[in-house]
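User: Hey, quick favor. My workstation is busy. Could you predict this chain's structure for me?
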Amino acid sequence: MRKLKRSEAKLIKDIVHQNHTVIEIDNKRYFLSLVEEPEPMKQPSKTNTKLAQKYVQTKLDILRGRNFSIDDVVEMMDNGVL
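Assistant: No problem, here it is.
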């Protein structure tokens, strides 16, 4: 796999965005497709104040050196706190 330069990546994205997923180069046809969509990072919703308060409290607890069990950490990750 080769990492594309910024200009090359923009060109490929534009081609795929316009639904022209088959391109021809040197009399060879290539099919372009998205292999993996990056997942957005989970952040607590500002409308969910309870979760936001828990997020702030957890952050303060970590800074104060409180120890957490593995189960606590997994639960916080599942709930989007970490």
